[in-house]
Amino acid sequence: MEADAIGTANGSRATAGNRAPKPLGAEAIRVAEERVDPAISTIVITGVARVVEFLLVAAVGFAAQFLYVYPQEGMPALYPLAILLGAGLSIMAFQAVDIYTPQALRTFLRQNSRLLVGWVGVFAVLALIAFFLKLGDSFSRVWLGLWFAVGFVSLALFRVGLALLVRHWTRSGRLERRAVIVGGGEPAAKLIEALNASPDSDIRICGIFDDRGDDRSPAVVRGYPKLGTVGQLVEFARRTRIDLLIVALPISAEKRVLQMLRTLWVLPVDIRLSAHTNQLRFRPRSYSYIGNVPFIDVFDKPIADWDYVLKWLFDRVIGTILLILALPVMALVALAIKLDSSGPALFRQKRYGFNNELIEVFKFRSMYAEKCDPTAIKLVTKSDPRVTRVGRFIRKTSLDELPQLFNVLRGELSLVGPRPHALHAKAADKLYDTVVDGYFARHRVKPGITGWAQVNGWRGETDTSEKIQQRVKFDLDYIENWSVLFDLYILLLTPYSLLTKKEGAY
């Protein structure tokens, strides 16, 4: 469901009547302050397992060829083809016997027979191929036996080690999805019963949030406490790791569902609508499942699973290269700042990061040291007397942002993403989140040094409401359409944009 299909929200301040929600209660604070390790995607784990096992099977085959076949026959070309075919067939066979599920990875000792069945099947297929192509005499039987025996032992040892690691991650909660149920009463009770009865559920319910305070929404439902209202849930999700929001309301309660979604869509989490009690049934493919319980997907967390890994690699690899290339320029800028005015060359500023977390970003100082404005209470305007001569140049060319490459390598920023704004940044003398409904939805991803809004000309001074509204519009468009190629396109477009779109950059 797209954001504009349900309207927009006003970040953590979005409640009925624009009133700020009450502070979290003692129980909600206790749950929020529990130590929670970062989550690990099971999709990434199973993907890595496939890659490792492909390489392991191939490595054993090549090692056996080098140790036994090479001294006698050299390196016949058929062997590498057979080895790569065998490695590919192995992954297909293991998938067929269903040993890439989280449960199978965690309980390998009880399911090792499946690995043996799959491994025997691979060599049976290879033997059939060799028989029909009349290639049986082209391969050494000793090599084939070594590959089979050592390959199985290597795969079994890898699986044992992976099972121990997966169990450790399971105990520490890193493979669980921390969930919150939105909406209490009988619908929540039925949902909890269904999840508890499902053998393959990876959900850990943290609590329930519901706006109702009457008998329809008791304080405890099936052992889980009500931690607050829907408005308070936004603050709760800012303070602890929440992976999934489950709306336990019937589809027929359209008005109430939409009201909740207008508040919750700004959070960087998956949002699912419970469907197990609905009388109206759709095709099975219309649902996603947690165990055996059906859900309707409303929002997906942006940049998750392999997308997260790709963006992490993009930031670290390209960020390191850019930092090395930029170091001489940064040294010259720092020297120019020191010669132009007294004070440090670097300036640190608190800004909003991912999920509204406060981060400290680095910039080259562009103002006189005694006139720096760390919270951006007053926007920089054209011919601003606080800005130094060097400061005007580096702000116009965005060279003042180069130290944020260190923030990228520290994991606080991405190379590309919505720009992080200062705490008290304003448009037309109003805080950004009071000007733009849904402003905090741009914080569902990590902020960046450059972004889609900036290369489209929406950077610099925000003296009107339209300017910040356009920024947020482009930021949300970036989040909805993210890809590594999109990041690369924005990065390549940034220098051109700096040269041609200088309006508002003071």
Structure write-up:
The protein has 506 residues and is of the alpha/beta class. The chain is 48% helix and 12% strand. It contains 16 helices and 14 strands. The strands form four sheets. The protein has an eight-stranded mixed sheet with strand order 3-4-2-1-5-6-8-7. The protein has a two-stranded antiparallel ribbon with strand order 9-10. Strand 3 and strand 4 (224-228) form a beta hairpin. Helix 2 runs antiparallel to helix 6, helix 3 (78-96) packs across helix 5 and helix 5 packs antiparallel against helix 6. The protein is flat and about 85 Å long. It starts with 25 loop residues before the first helix and ends in a 6-residue tail after the last helix. Residues 1-18 have low confidence and may be disordered.
Task: Compute the number of helices.
Answer: 16
In helices, the fraction of residues equals 40-55%
Quaternary structure: single chain
Query: If you compute it from the alpha carbons, what radius of gyration comes out, rounded to the nearest whole angstrom?
Result: 28 Å
Order of helices and strands: HHHHHHEHEEEHEHEEEHEEHHEEEHEHHH
Widest sheet, order of strands: 3-4-2-1-5-6-8-7
Structural class by SSE content: alpha/beta
Low-confidence stretches: 1-18
Q: State the end-to-end distance.
A: 39 Å
Average pLDDT over all residues: 85
Largest sheet: 8 strands, mixed
Number of strands: 14
Based on Cα principal axes, name the global outline: flat
